[in-house]
Amino acid sequence: xxxxxxxxxxxxxxxxxxxxxxxxxxxxxxxxxxxxxxxxxxxxxxxxxxxxxxxxxxxxxxxxxxxxxxxxxxxxxxxxxxxxxxxxxxxxxxxxxxxxxxxxxxxxxxxxxxxxxxxxxxxxxxxxxxxxxxxxxxxxxxxxxxxxxxxxxxxxxxxxxxxxxxxxxxxxxxxxxxxxxxxxxxxxxxxxxxxxxxxxxxxxxxxxxxxxxxxxxxxxxxxxxxxxxxxxxxxxxxxxxxxxxxxxxxxxxxxxxxxxxxxxxxxxxxxxxxxxxxxxxxxxxxxxxxxxxxxxxxxxxxxxxxxxxxxxxxxxxxxxxxxxxxxxxxxxxxxxxxxxxxxxxxxxxxxxxxxxxxxxxxxxxxxxxxxxxxxxxxxxxxxxxxxxxxxxxxxxxxxxxxxxxxxxxxxxxxxxxxxxxxxxxxxxxxxxxxxxxxxxxxxxxxxxxxxxxxxxxxxxxxxxxxxxxxxxxxxxxxxxxxxxxxxxxxxxxxxxxxxxxxxxxxxxxxxxxxxxxxxxxxxxxxxxxxxxxxxxxxxxxxxxxxxxxxxxxxxxxxxxxxxxxxxxxxxxxxxxxxxxxxxxxxxxxxxxxxxxxxxxxxxxxxxxxxxxxxxxxxxxxxxxxxxxxxxxxxxxxxxxxxxxxxxxxxxxxxxxxxxxxxxxxxxxxxxxxxxxxxxxxxxxxxxxxxxxxxxxxxxxxxxxxxxxxxxxxxxxxxxxxxxxxxxxxx
Length: 730
Ligand code: ADP
Ligand code: MG
Hints:
By secondary structure, this protein is an alpha+beta fold. Helix 22 (586-639) packs antiparallel against helix 23.
């Protein structure tokens, strides 16, 4: 059988693990060698310019053109020494991927060939923006958009192909009229706002704190399949997921893959990714198998949020590139395979002061606990108020398969904090506890909870079913999709926490002006927040039906699909929140809403088309051919005058196949009609809802019957690589 499937299976037998080339004996010797980091800046810049750039990074000061000129010269020298021929502004448009447009350093100076990189080229570029999504912000007559240098994320040199090096400059991407067309611009604003409010609140506890920044560590889950098998699955290649495939006899039921020995070919891939990541300054730390067969995970050491988001975007690009080198294909889709776990991207988030303190790490002294509780409880309160917005920030066609399914976090947003902290918050809630507290006139304050640190140290509470879990010294937002840019989720978390802290500060200051001591005021507000946000806390099994029912009675949302979830982006509460904190304007939010809706229905549309194509052109012809073979067989047996019982099985099989063919064909035809109906609708919101409610449900029905055919047809005639091959062979 000459199908791609069998060619791929044959090639697979010869695949070997590739050797890894380490650029040095120890990682620390070459970590960041491709990054224009502070060490290199110091080396290539004058002392005064270096100081100014540092200040700009730390305080968000703008860099004037003169300084940009010198930085550009320094970057160019470094990049040329490293063999770069080109530079690019590297940005994150609202498509979710990364974008770059390369320019050569080469130039002509009065006809004389030279290398040139000016301060202007570093600071600002004007890529042709017309084909990036803008959600209506950019009319074609003002199609201009520009990218502007973000000095807080270091420039780096990327090897696009062997020996081809490009200097990449992280930038924001904004419309000519000033609106953001990317994720980085609002992310930076949300970070600045959070820095401001968190620092103000921190001053209640420690006057030495001059800056507080959010930190992020992203655990990245992914699948790997053999490149040949991948190429033989048009659904994987075009939609990122398998639209068909009967589950393999063995799935994840034995739970023997998780943390198991990493297969050699995979380990070689991981090692190669790590080397490349380390060179680029991405501090990868862990690697292991995940729950599903063929599924793996890596995680870096956490960093400041803006850099961590850039690094995750870059890491995904590196993984794509390296997987091809290993004749593998990395899958970031949230649900590439039915009936086994999907993939997520756990966003570990915390707050860190310039004095090096993690604000979500409970301290040893009682007054540290008050500081911890201030931030801890404010975050819970923020999640309670804006749960629907958090849900919206992670909504996508791919993530719909995970959320609410029986595996990853449910679509209901709740917060898990562990038994001990749960008890502490419950105790703090009652007025008696508060009035019994000894709030002295000096700084000693006995909350009766001095034991927090000890308890948390051996806090082994792990609740994998919670979408937003406290894990000892950080919150872990687990509902982010594996293919997503972390930007939207981080923009929301930063902004809602900033907003809450601002409210906290106002309220506490009000109480102090009215005569309360600082400690009493802090405790009063903490207690109010605990009371008001109680409903969002849940310590039980997030997958259970009982929770869905309880959540409903608590008034928590359970938003099942993307079009419904996205609506929160344009609710009055959201518009006010983002405007109040100057992170996104109403116009920007509406544009994002439009873009996300459009992306949603286009994805479903593509899946629906690929499904129709695969069924009609790949699967049904094979089924009909085999059915014919059976018919010929029955006719042959009949001609021998054998009793009916001699071909009873064949007859039944012919009937079964006919039934599935008929259902599949009619369902596909109906799906096409429904698709046409919704394609005629101009309004994005309605079209997205139509695709969700009326097109999407065909997928399961068509798949069910196609997967039945997979079981009925001879293995050597089935055209698509099967689950057992995709998931287990490498
Ligand atoms: P687990 O989720 O099992 O606790 P780790 O402790 O390794 O796993 O943490 C997972 C991720 O959380 C890592 O990327 C780690 O760097 C990150 N992380 C740890 N501490 C913080 C922090 N204070 N802020 C942000 N991320 C953190
Ligand atoms: Mg984790």
